[in-house]
Amino acid sequence: MPSMNRVLITGAAGTIGRALRESLRGVYPILRLSDRVPLTPAGAGEEVDQTDLTDMAAVEKMVAGADGIVHLGGISGESDWQTILAGNIVGTYNLFEAARRAGVRRIVFATSNHAVGFYPRTQRIDHRVVPRPDSRYGVSKAFGEALASLHADKHGIGFLCTRIGNFGPRPIDKRRLSIWISPRDYAQLVRIGLEHPDIRFEIVYGVSNNRRSWYDNTNALRLGYRPQDDSEAYAAAVLAAEPAEAGPIAERYQGGTFCAAEYTAKTPPE
Question: Which residues are catalytic?
Answer without folding.
Answer: 137
